[in-house]
Structure formats: C-alpha cells, structure tokens
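Lest this sound abstract, we let one protein speak, letters for residues, whole numbers for local backbone shapes, and leave readers to judge:
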Amino acid sequence: MWCWRAFKWLPVLLIVSIVTWSYYAYVIQLCIFTIDGTAQKCIYLVLYHILLIMFLWSYWRTIFADIKPIPDKYKLPETELEKLLSAETEDGQRTILENFAKDLPIVTRTMSGSVRYCNRCVLVKPDRAHHCSICARCVLKMDHHCPWVNNCVCFHNYKFFMLFLGYALLYCLFIMSTCLPYFIRFWKGDFGTSGSAGRYHIVFAFFVALMFAISLGSLFGYHCYLVAHNRTTLEAFRAPMFRGGADKNGFSIGAFNNFKEVFGASPDLWAIPVFTSLGDGCEYPVRREHQLQTFTTPQDGGGYESMGTTRSSFGDGFVYPQRTTDEDTESLLSSERWERWGQRARPFDGSSSFDEL
C-alpha cells in the first residue's frame, strides 16, 4: 500500500523537479550570468518571482486542499441500511432510497431515473458528486482525478486548479518570451562560446516552456469553457440527468454567474488562491425547468423553499447554501460498521443502475 501511495506522488515530484531546474536556468544562467543590463535584470527577476510565487501557491493549494466528506444527512442511518440490505428486490431497494431521499436537496437522477446511490460509500450522492475509485470516496462536484496534483479536482479546490493552470501558463509564456531573443541568437550562432554550457540551459528552457505552454493553453482554455457553461469534465462527457431528462446546461445560470460560482463574489480575491467559491458543494442553482417542485427546507438555514423559491439568494434569485466547517466525519465505510453486517452483500453490487453517474 505504501508503495502505491509513493508512486502516486511521482508526477508531482516530476513537476517540482522541472520547476526547480527552470529556476536555475532562468535566474542563474539567464538573469545573473547572461543579461548585462541591471534594469533589465531586475525587471525580469521581479516579474519572474511574482509569477513563480503565485504559480506555486496555487499548485500547493490544489494538492493539499481540504477535501471535506459528504455531509451526514446523505448517509443512510443504520436502520435504513438494515432495511436496504434486507430488501429482496431492486424495486424494494429503490423505494427505500426514494423515501430516504425525498427530503434531500437533490434534483439529478441516474440514467434510469433512480436516486443516485453509492454502494461503496453507502450514501445518496448529492448533485454533481461522484465516487472517485482512486481516492476511494465520494467527492463533491467532482471534475476529475488529476495525477499531476495527486488529488481530486472538485468543489473544494477547483478555483485553485484554475489559478494553477492560469499562472502556470503565464509562467511558461514569460520564460518563453524572455528567452526567445537568446534562442534566436543561438540559432544564428551568435550566443556565447561553443564551450559554454549555460547557453544550452537557456535554449532548453525556451523549448520546455514552449511545450508546456501549448499543452497548458489548450487545457486552460477548455476549463474556461467549462466554467463559463457551469459544467465539470464528467458532465461534459455525460450530461447530468434530471427528472425531465438529460440537460448539459442544467446548472448553467449565465456566464458571469457561473464564473462567480467558482471564483466568488469578491473581485479582489479572484486572482488569489484562497477559497471563495459560493455554496456548500451539495446544492446548486438549476434552470427553472429543473427546480424541485416540492422540497422540505433543510434545518440548517439557507436552501430552497417549496416550489423552487429561495430565502437567501445571489444574482438573479439563485441560492448558494453556506458551507459548514465542522461536519461529522464518521464514515460508513469503517470496518466496524461493516463487521455488523457480516458477509452480507452490499446493495446494488455488479451492474445495478444505482451506481451510475
């Protein structure tokens, strides 16, 4: 197990190694040993370190973001779990889940129209939540599991991930543009002596920055598109299913509101890797045709009222429930919990539709 955990950090170590080498190539070989002008040298160093700090800060927050568990209200109590395990038919299990989920703020369903249930975490999935097989848990608003950050990109770190991509792209573009004149001189044979190893670091830094800028540019552009349309990567490949059918734009509330859902309502914090995303990760505003027709308001404050109206709203009547900070972290996956059920099979194992996206 420890070998697998160590192996998952290799992509992160590769990125750190490349950034460390780029620091040597740019700061030492280019700015200190190659550039003669003091003013140019200082400007390059200041701009470089600003981009480097923001890039590494965003990367750190993406990797080590506090991915909170699914709230307890979505987890089946022992009495309901006992009923579910004792049900003899899938229709009986479906009825039990429907009754349990009737007061939960969920509007999405499986492809077959059933409640989205995870038989590994033993809980009803909140809207946009999915089970990550690598992290072995359900994750709120899961976008994808990224090996380059060794973490799930989800509700709790999606803003950090976007800033990481953006600052990494700017970092590469800055290195590429400032190294370009020296690459041209190298190409013309007018850059350093043939025995100088430093010039090869600068030329190689240009090519590495160019290569990463191309890949980062396409990835960052794609995620900007997803943010503007309020979709995750998973939802882009399979549209979320509502009671009225699949709708790829079901969570879209306008490009600017979609942007603020990820980056927050404070413009002065948009470019800073601190958490400002709106909501609690469980409830999301949806288009009018998908709003709940009957809904029991949660006891913890903000949320939808009946008929889809709201008590507290953002923008054009859209609600963002507050994120709780002290959720009970008791897990239904604990060994003690399952020892009580002996060797009995978990519900919906195999090809059941209840574990669909």
In short: The longest helix spans residues 198-228. Confidence is low (pLDDT under 50) at residues 293-316, 325-346, 349-356.
